Amino acid sequence: MEIDYDYFSPASTDIALYKKLIKKQGELVCRDQIYVDIISKSLRQHSFGVLAKTRQASTGRNSPISDDKWSLLGFATCEPFDDDMDTVILSLICARKNQKEMGKDLMGIIEDQARQLGYKKIQLFSLPEPHLSRWYERLGYKKGYVIPDYKTGTNKLVTMTKKIF
Known about the structure:
about 35% strand, alpha+beta, Aminopeptidase, about 160 residues, seven-stranded mixed beta sheet, 4 helices
């Protein structure tokens, strides 16, 4: 299976197609852990992102690119951090469960793009699950502060940051 990785920004010529593809298949890719309203919000606020897709099997002649000709395998979106112009926030990353290295590939592409755009750090907010923190740490991210859920008294999110310059 050949995978296409496409960078996108609000100025991308295919941005409408990419947004439609992510909205249509995003919940499936995020394994029903992140719902379409969160995905849509991330797409409205993004400054850049990347998606991984593969062409669906089809019969007959090749047709123009459309959202029903592609299967979304993963995506990530970033937005600028208001308080620090050197930092970009990785606002959302999702990959299909059967795509073993997809998350790592998406992170690498996002880091490269952020570096090219002049950012010096990437920050993200991870669920407080030990396997996620370990995965991000293996990619070079450092744990920051914990954001508590004051209603339940449990940890809600963990900040993680990586210097990329």
